[in-house]
């Protein structure tokens, strides 16, 4: 009997939450078979089994948080009784001169799972009965992390739902319907619901309490440390981005969509950081030194179902605009799927935040510690603007730079911001120097 303990996942992580099991009790596994999908403070990862044999026990339900070093699964030794019973059942494979035993009443051997795709449905999710003590409990068929999160936040037991999607898949509307029925059950008046005691300070009832996930705890720790340690300052400028939009349109063709707008912005930001490296570094408080990096790993703030993440384009200073575009799209897709690596999530040297995608004009962002600056870009909209003494309708946006005042004074920060703003307003001339 072997017990697989939750391994050290690096980066100081001390726990992980079980998102879903990729195996069930009774499954035969080989070494490196993925057995569980877990969510850490950094990303969602698959854990492979270090043992071969039969799954004897799964230590925890989906949604359970397990500390590092605690049991995750128990696997019976291949030489153990459970595995020998599987062998006696007959595999259908024989050696020359030998055959499988015919045992009356014996079932077929379960097929070993040599690999499980992260995008495939695990056997435990096929709506088959699974032992859970005295009762048989159904493991739900659900794929979307958004659906799981919605159910978890609202304390909806997915095992009690019947999916309305293809093959019984539980989809978002099933969870929302369960929430609606719980708030106002069918055939029951609102007055019949249990009264909720009001909170002492406000006198209002609490709608719900949601435990912080490991990911949210990590975000809280980073932002709190940033506010506590960094003497930050903010500067901003309104920018005429008409020429930038025209450049983006000119790069499109019938057969090539061309680099996206964010890739163009990223290219100008990288050029600005190479010119003003004070903003591309960190403060070594122990040695009382200001450190500047020789190169840029450009972090890009991205909103996902799990919250805000900032994956980094490694060695962005070596890439063309088209290369940046390819990498940005790859990181964005990985962020949505929860498949970013710890290296991608923690290696940034500067952050570009396109909060304009949320339809807002400006923001006083919080620096992503231990970085020393973050540049935000607001939405690009039509506004009146004076051009050559004449009033015109132009494509305007706002750039805001939050920087650590320990690494530079306002002059350097303003010079960097003005460089990027000039690139937005006259991109053709800047490209000539890149």
UniProtKB/TrEMBL annotation:
Domain Peripheral subunit-binding (PSBD): 142-179
GO terms assigned for molecular function: acetyltransferase activity; lipoic acid binding
UniProt entry keywords in alphabetical sequence: Acyltransferase, Lipoyl, Pyruvate, Transferase
Cofactor(s) the protein needs: (R)-lipoate
Transferase among keywords: yes
Keyword DNA damage carried by entry: no
Name the record gives this protein: Dihydrolipoamide acetyltransferase component of pyruvate dehydrogenase complex
EC assignment: 2.3.1.-
Pfam hit, one: E3_binding
Cellular component aspect of the GO annotation: cytoplasm
Similarity comment: family membership: Belongs to the 2-oxoacid dehydrogenase family.
Signal sequence, renumbered to the chain: none
